[in-house]
Amino acid sequence: EQKAFADNAFKEGNYRDAAVYYTRALRYTPKNEKLLSNRSVAYLKASRFQLALDDAIAAEALEPNWPKVYFRKAQALLALRRPEEAVMALVQGQGL
Fold it and tell me: Which helix (H) or strand (E) holds 6?
């Protein structure tokens, strides 16, 4: 239910609300890389770049063979003005 609220908020451009709903959903399934990835992009859109990176790293730890997490990580690193690390994340994801 919380994920559905989060997805709707995200689609409407309410990124902070989406992050809150994803956080609530993660209370029920804390080790869900898809929820972490979704919250990462919501944080990114809400200009909460470090939180976006933290979630991307957490999702990577849960599912290191999922290329999307490296893209999310790269997006956050670029937003944090760490382009060299962003390129490394993309290369790492590309190798999967």
Answer: helix 2-11
Q: Which two tokens stand for residue 60?
A: 């990577």
SS3 breakdown of the chain: % helix, strand, coil, rounded to 5?
80, 0, 20
Q: What is the pTM of this model?
A: 0.95
* Burial degree of 41 (CB within 10 A; 0-12, 13-18, 19+): buried
Quote the crossing angle between the two packed helices 33-45 and 2-11, to the nearest 10°: 30
Contact 52, 40 (CB under 8 A): yes
Residue 30: pLDDT above 90?
Answer: yes
Distance CA 6, CA 14 (A): 9
The letter for the amino acid at 22 is: Y
